[in-house]
Each structure stands twice: as structure tokens, then as C-alpha cells.
Design goal:
2 domains, about 120 residues, two-stranded antiparallel sheet, 1 helix, 7 strands, about 45% strand, 3-stranded antiparallel beta sheet, mainly beta
């Protein structure tokens, strides 16, 4: 990859129809972070952090090779192992957190059917 030119990195995830772009600056010689916003099919936001770092190699001027390391992560990641149909939302929001499918949660929790799953508020 030619790191002397500006490039755009497009992030897309399954079940998140809207992609997000991260602009990689030309001649990137230091690590930087960006926050990107994706939305799920119900238009609920998911914020991810993207860290871009140049890969240092022995070749090339200044020890900077033609590659960058891209790390994408979520500051908070919840996994429901309780067996209960939990649906999460963040304090101050009236909608559930992105990527959750209420019907899926209800159906997969020990075969028990509930009309309204319990909610857990996240305090950030």
C-alpha cells in the first residue's frame, strides 16, 4: 500500500447497513485514533474506536514501511450468558443499544417466551 497518499478505509459490519469511513492521512508517521458511528437496521447508533498505526520496518526512509495496522474495537462489549432475555440500553437514551434483536433474545433464552424482556440500564 502506498502510504504517501491519503486513503479512505470503509468499515462495514453484518446487520449494520450503513458503512463508516476513516480517512488515513498521507505520510502517516504516528498513531492516531478516530471514533466512527455505524447504525443498525433500526437506525440505532454503534460507536467504535479505530486506531491506525504505521508498521515500522527496516526498509524505507525513516523506518516506515508501506503498511499500517488498523485496530477496531468497542469501548464496551456485553455478552449475555445469563440465560435470561436481556435487552440493554444506555442511561439517557430511550432506545435499546444497537445490534440487539429483541425477538432473537426472547426466542433463544431457554425456550421460554416472554412478551417484554427485562431491561438493564448502563451507566457510563
Amino acid at each position: 500500500m502506498n502510504t504517501s497518499r491519503q486513503m479512505a478505509l470503509t468499515l462495514s459490519l453484518d446487520q449494520f447497513p450503513n458503512a463508516a469511513d476513516v480517512i488515513l492521512p498521507a505520510n502517516c508517521s504516528s498513531t492516531f485514533e478516530a471514533r466512527v458511528r455505524l447504525t443498525d437496521a433500526q437506525d440505532r447508533p454503534l460507536f467504535l474506536q479505530v486506531r491506525v498505526a504505521p508498521v515500522v520496518s527496516g526498509a524505507g526512509a525513516g523506518g516506515v514501511g508501506g503498511a499500517v495496522r488498523v485496530t477496531v474495537y468497542a469501548p464496551i462489549w456485553l455478552v449475555n450468558k445469563t440465560g435470561l432475555p436481556l435487552v440493554f440500553r444506555q442511561e439517557g437514551y430511550t432506545i435499546e443499544a444497537a445490534g440487539q434483536d429483541v425477538e432473537h433474545e426472547v426466542k433463544n433464552c431457554m425456550g421460554k417466551r416472554r412478551d417484554v424482556p427485562p431491561k438493564v440500564d448502563l451507566f457510563h
